[in-house]
């Protein structure tokens, strides 16, 4: 019997533990939190209590000693666990394989994968792509999973070769794959993010690029032709490249002709296929045109009928916490972009604003540079409210850009109260933190939900 060490005992860790136990492995499940602290999370208690306890050892409440690696065949860290912790470094020293939950799930199922990565737009594109494939009768069931919410491992016991996983994949999930090979993959864009985890931009981009390293020449790779870093990244990809672009017509891929999204399948532009107009898209803005193009590329070149793609593109209205309209109160629009967890995402949200904007920003420090964001703030923002670990660094960047109308706030009730006080009819209040939420919240969903509650309350 193989023994697998699973590090991190919340949503992902418990899901992969259940899958491994069902597959006949022994599991050591560990977490630095104790059982009481873990039990406070809805992601832990109910699924953990349902686990069979035979062949399961739990080590909670302390750092894992190196001795715990004795007899371990494989280590599976949850995505949020840094690879620099002593137990993982010792595993590498001993030659014990360290693989991600996605890699383990891939080994435990024969269900094909569509994988989507990039710095921004992953959740919108993954959700839209999943909804398109759900309408395709070739698949018995489509699971939209991964970094978007549910772990892939939650479904490997029930999924079959007749199903499909559409998975949002972060750099944390991709950096420790080994054999994972999606039938179709997309790289949406690349911009600085998670440098506190990866150390350098090159390491971060390299982790993203692993999505295609095991693909074959028959597999599909959907690529942003307008992003120079993405283009460089995919030069050696073995798979069939499908390009998407706002700037020109690729020989094979998706592009914009006037206001219409088109499919090109060869050199003859007269044979191109019209998909949908920008106006008819359910999601708005240039960034969402790009997201829609990626979804079209994945679906169309995987054989989904065009009529299904068109119908879904019209019906899909976006995802929660991504430039989500909350309410208009006293003539002021309130927009929740809590999923804007890096500066590029915040810049995208600001560029979509058409009204004088009060911006709430700040949060967990991922060691980003706020210079470019603050240059846009001077053009788009009426007042800036800064919160969390990065508030002072953002204030310094605002000062350097010549923007003076900012305030540091202690918590979200204060931030929303000050935003309401500063806003006049015709203005907008935007939460787009440009930072992760982990300094004050469990996740960006909790942050966005509190913002919406405070706005409506």
From TrEMBL:
GO molecular function, one term: ATP binding
Any one biological process term the GO annotation gives: cell wall organization
Reaction(s) catalysed (UniProt annotation): UDP-N-acetyl-alpha-D-muramoyl-L-alanine + D-glutamate + ATP = UDP-N-acetyl-alpha-D-muramoyl-L-alanyl-D-glutamate + ADP + phosphate + H(+)
Listed Pfam families: Mur_ligase_C, Mur_ligase_M, MurD-like_N
GO cellular component terms given for this protein: cytoplasm
Keywords noted in UniProt: ATP-binding, Cell cycle, Cell division, Cell shape, Cell wall biogenesis/degradation, Cytoplasm, Ligase, Nucleotide-binding, Peptidoglycan synthesis
Localization (cell): Cytoplasm
Binding locations of ATP: 118-124
Top-rank lineage group of the source organism: Bacteria
UniProt main location, coarse: cytoplasm
The protein's Enzyme Commission number: 6.3.2.9
NCBIfam families: murD
PANTHER family, alphabetized: UDP-N-ACETYLMURAMOYLALANINE--D-GLUTAMATE LIGASE
Record family assignment: Belongs to the MurCDEF family.
Name under which the protein is recorded: UDP-N-acetylmuramoylalanine--D-glutamate ligase
Species this chain originates from: Pseudoramibacter alactolyticus ATCC 23263
